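Hypothesis: this fold can be encoded by more than one sequence.
Test: take the structure tokens below, design a sequence, compare later.
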């Protein structure tokens, strides 16, 4: 009741307010102080319970959203499996194989270009020994 109606302020402010209210009402006797501690701890427990309940509600909502998303993706997967039984594995394998062949071809051409540049440099130095690479 009293805690739910207070907007903002945070837990410390609410507890401090109740502490002051209870101390003022009870006075400063030892018995009154222990009663105040008991009531303040009850207030803290209530506030924590409310916060955890809200957190649980948010998590439940998120869980429902995720379950819906998973169900939708499962349906999409089933439709794709019905249309393409191997799941496009052959196409992916073909793409990977083609890419690998092209990468090997590029590596071979780079090695050949480096070898030809070295040969050109060797011939240039043999023909014009005074003119090295600039």
């Amino acid at each position: 009741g009293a805690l739910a109606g207070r907007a903002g302020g945070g837990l410390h402010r609410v507890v401090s307010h109740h502490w002051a209210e209870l101390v003022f009402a009870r006075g400063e006797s030892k018995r009154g102080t222990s009663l105040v501690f008991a009531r303040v701890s009850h207030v803290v427990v209530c506030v924590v319970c409310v916060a955890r309940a809200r957190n649980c509600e948010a998590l439940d909502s998120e869980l429902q959203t995720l379950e819906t998303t998973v169900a939708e993706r499962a349906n999409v997967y089933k439709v794709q499996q019905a249309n393409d039984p191997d799941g496009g594995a052959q196409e992916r394998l073909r793409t990977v194989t083609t890419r690998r062949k092209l990468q090997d071809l590029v590596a071979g051409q780079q090695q050949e270009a480096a070898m030809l540049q070295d040969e050109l440099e060797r011939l240039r130095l043999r023909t014009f020994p005074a003119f090295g690479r600039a």
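Residues 1-27 have pLDDT under 50 and may be disordered. Helices lie at 10-26, 30-83, 89-127.
Hypothesis status: open.
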